[in-house]
Amino acid sequence: MSSEVQKEIEIELAKSRAGQLYFLSDFRGMGSDAAIRQSLSRICKTGGIKRIAHGVYLLPKVDPVLGELMPSLESIAEAIAKKEHIRIKPVGAYALHKLGLTTQIPMKLVYITDGQARVIKIGKSTIKFKPTTPKKLVMEGKLSSLIIQALEELGTENLEPKTVKKIKELLYKEDRKKLMNDIKLAPANISDFLFSLLKEK
Prior knowledge:
There is one protein chain. The chain is α+β, with helices and mostly antiparallel strands. The chain folds into two domains: 2-63, Orthogonal Bundle (Arc Repressor Mutant, subunit A), CATH 1.10.10.10; 72-201, no CATH class. The protein is built from nine helices and nine strands. The strands form three sheets. Strands 6-7-9-8 form a four-stranded mixed β-sheet. A three-stranded antiparallel β-sheet has the order 1-3-2, sandwiched between helices. A two-stranded antiparallel ribbon has the order 4-5. The longest helix is centred in the first third of the chain and has 14 residues, at 33-46. The mean pLDDT is 90.
């Protein structure tokens, strides 16, 4: 039975493009959970697929010059969110990095979510999902929601002038309607700070 499950999985993998991510749940219906895990373990040993995290697999993609290519942590997080039908938004140091407020690339990506709390370890890096209130996830603007999450990390006091300047520039790049919606949903101190920036000439 296990060999039949493995054959069915291999047929499925043969249809896919290199670099595609797979989850354990993608193979449900092909056999028992134990048989699927056992089959994937054997396929991993032959190099047909690579386990990159618990329940997350990658169909290897090899560049003739760079060698084996790994998907970005961000693309893995987005694939997990899509698979589980949950919403995620970057917070903390990762939000700062995405806004260009820091050049340091975080080894841990932290997202708020309406899904379950979990930590996915990928090599030396991690992706963390933190459950949050619906209010934080209904923010509409891509930039404004990131700015608000970044300011929750930085605070609004003692910001360097260049950081304040960058934040102000980003505010004006956001859709006005979405910006106003999101600022009103932000914590009071951040809302006041952002409104004060918008009133400056």
